[in-house]
Amino acid sequence: MAKLSRRKIAALWASELLKGRDITGQVAAYLVESRRVDEATLIVRDTEIALAEHGVVVADLTSAYALSADSREAIEKFLAIKMNADKVAFRESTEPSVIGGVRIETAGRQLDATLKTRLNQLKASKI
Amino acid sequence: MEYYTQLTVLAATAEASADEGILAALGIDWMLLAIQLVAFLVLVWILRKFVYPVFIRIIDEREEKIEASVKAAEIAEQNAESAQENVQALLKEARKEAKEIVATAKDEATAMVDASDKKAKARADKIVADAHDKIEKDVIAARKALHNDTIELVALATEKVVGQITSAQLDKKVIDSAVKEAR
What we know:
Shape of chain B: rod-shaped
Number of strands of chain A: 4
Radius of gyration of chain A: 17 Å
Order of helices and strands of chain A: HHHEHEEEH
Oligomer: heterodimer
Shape of chain A: globular
Structural class of chain A: alpha+beta
Number of domains of chain B: 1
Distance between the termini of chain A: 58 Å
């Protein structure tokens, strides 16, 4: 079996997702079979980039507390405008060490508005 | 009386001789006189020929020596005068040079003192300037350290305080504010 490139796998996976078919299990099986499990993270990122190119943005949200519906909506609108997206999906996680605020990560872009980062920036401003 | 007698005899004799000739009366013999004259002339000739030249030569030499000595003495005197003048001139020159040397030494000493003063002043100025620079650098370093310590303290305090006072409600405001800022 010929080895598919990471970009082709991502493009195929994104295409299928856009068509409403979830082939995640098949992609996982292919990666296991072809012993390319360690490329999984990169393939997921490439898939998200491919989805973004088609107007679907997947964002990782990290905050100290669970996001409220209002905050989630505001972030969704923000990403829709900034990334010209028709649809926005979130993967949320809470991380108390960020203290406050939110970190938004999409394929290839990041907005870190956490208090922890701002405090680190303040510390980094030492002369 | 006796004396008178002798004069009388003598007068008588003279009177007699006058008759025979005066020379004879005087007892002069012509032949003897001629021989003596010739002998005298021969003696004169011999003296003139052999003795006088030697004496004259010796005298001339002596005179020359004396003249030479006189001239030498004159020359020596002139030399002494000249030497005296030279000595005076040399002394004058030496005094002049000594004065010049002293004046030059004074000038050099003054210049050295001035240079030393200038050097000392420059060194003192440099020390002061260095001290100012060091103080300024120390002040800047202290300000930086204070600045950094303040930032560290503020960050630490903020982290501690904010970590305790934040709530979901406050966090929502922070998130909304951040999203608005990002737009």
